[in-house]
Amino acid sequence: MRWSRYNTLFRTEGLGHFCYNALSNTLIELDEAHYGLLEGCREGRAPSRVEDDGFLDLLREQHVLVEAGEEEDVLLVRRHRRQAACFDASTLGLTICPTLRCNFRCPYCFEASQQDGGFMSAETQDRLVEWIAEQDDARSLSVAWYGGEPLLAFDTVCSLTERFRALGLAYAKASMVTNGYLLDGAKIARLSELGIESIQITLDGPREMHDGRRVLADGGPTYERILKNVAALMDSGWGGRCDIRVNVDKRNLDGFLALRADLLHRFEGTKLSVYPGHVDVLGDQAYDGCSCLATDEWASFALELARRHWVFTRGGLHPADGADGTCVATRRQGFVVGPEGELYKCWTDVGRPSMMVGSIHAGETITDPVLVARYATGVDPYSDPRCRVCAVLPICGGGCAHRRLLAKYEGREDVDSCSLYRTRLQDCLESYIRVKRSRETCAALLRPGMTAEERPAWRVISPAPEQPPAPQRGAGRQGPRAAERRTKEGPCHKKT
Amino acid sequence: MSQEEVKRLIERMNADEAFREKVLAAPDVAARLELAAAEGYVVTEEDLAGAEGALTDAELGRVAGGSEMQGVDDGGSHGEYMPSCCCYS
Questions:
Q1: What is the value of pTM for the model shown?
Q2: Could you tell me if A120 and A42 lie in one domain?
Q3: Cβ of A106 under 8 Å from any chain B Cβ?
Q4: Which candidate from A178, A274, A347 shows the least CB-CB separation from B86?
Q5: Does residue A303 fall inside a structural domain?
Q6: Which residues contact A167 (CB under 8 A, 6 or more apart)?
Q7: What is the pLDDT of residues B2-12, one digit of tens each?
Q8: CB contact under 8 A, B55 and A323
Q9: Among candidates A232, A231, A226, A217, which has minimal Cα distance to A180?
Q10: Which residues on adjacent β-strands are paired with residue A336?
Q11: Complex prediction ipTM
Q12: Binary contact (A441, B54; C-beta < 8 A)
């Protein structure tokens, strides 16, 4: 047995001693004696005999100590999972842009055709419905309405939804990304029948800050009206979730917390969340890239939010388990549909003719199989030598496929596709540990029976996965998935 | 403000073992909060419960919104295509 290259062993003043393994996505809290034992393992010494407390079994099960070839086997299983997800045809996932026209002129927008886009014609709508019906392997249809501004073509959203529902596919969980300006009472009243369960609306800070960025085509302000529409939405009885995205860069960084506090207070008790989105200039938009936060600056911002304000990003601070790195761009049955029936693989490609992969009007739908293959296979991190030796590949899953594409095939040396875990993993884990500690202290305060528990000699402190992976047959050796099926919270050993 | 007060209290308890033991030695929540108040931390049981809920969500990764720590569009559960990485609309 030897020390896994996916281990991070660290001690932090005031927090304690820890070992994290990215392959099993498991964080173990240790006392000093067990930490010392692992230090020895890291330096190449065989684990010394310890009391038979199950610790060595845990190290083996969680891939902290591995046999020759074991890590490669686990990576192979993960790669297979990614490929299976990429080529699964049971769900057709469409992002539909009924128009590329937009009533806003936001400076950082990556879409190239805000002003000249038309609306989806009746003929294209007919063909879209036909084309979906032709996808024989699809059992369910997932739709995200996008644009341009989709509410400029709300009639199309309504008529297409009705026709999609008549196709006999499972149709659920539609979502919409809108600027919110046109979300009036009449449209809100129809959201439930349209199956729209989540809406993303962007506000870029308090009124003055927002109105300096997200303006109408004539430069007019938008904040008041959007807020009024959000209030109507949350008061309407619609059962969905509203996510307020705040596009954050150096220019409005300071406004995020004030806006968040205001909105959460105003809409307390509703399913409204407020989260920061990372503005990132990759395309040819005129926005000043110097205003954007680099990946590391973004990490610092997010970690600071957690540490100083208890404001957290989705997914929390502990790395996500089973990040297979798939998205609409990498999945065979995922497409972004433009208003003329043109197909793209990534949202950021919308409106760029060179990034079209096909058309629903074409005899052969896919007209650029090379680009499709690049997204699905060409940017597969498991075939990238740099990723294969990276200690965080199992949790990063390769990062953004679009960024990988730019770096690999367009020679964009300025594009970093790595997740922040590559350089900030320990910071993220420490933040997670602080959150867990604080939650435990809250619980101890609220429940007098839980007073001052003795810290065990070691314990797994990762969150339990919400959905255990599907069982499989014939995994070799210990079975790479065996560890992944374990409930993370629980194994521990009391000091004697 | 209440969450900030809870945060101050919890951070003090996490950092100051003697204070932690003193507070937790009180027999019930009301007595504990009285001790905390005497040290300048004015919080209610409701504040604490709210903070515990928020921290539990954060610990379990149930915070809604974008997947920004990951740096990748995880698309939510399989088959759900709502991206979070790039939609500025």
A1: 0.85
A2: no
A3: yes
A4: A347
A5: no
A6: A129, A132, A133, A141
A7: 888 999 999 99
A8: no
A9: A226
A10: A95, A344
A11: 0.83
A12: no
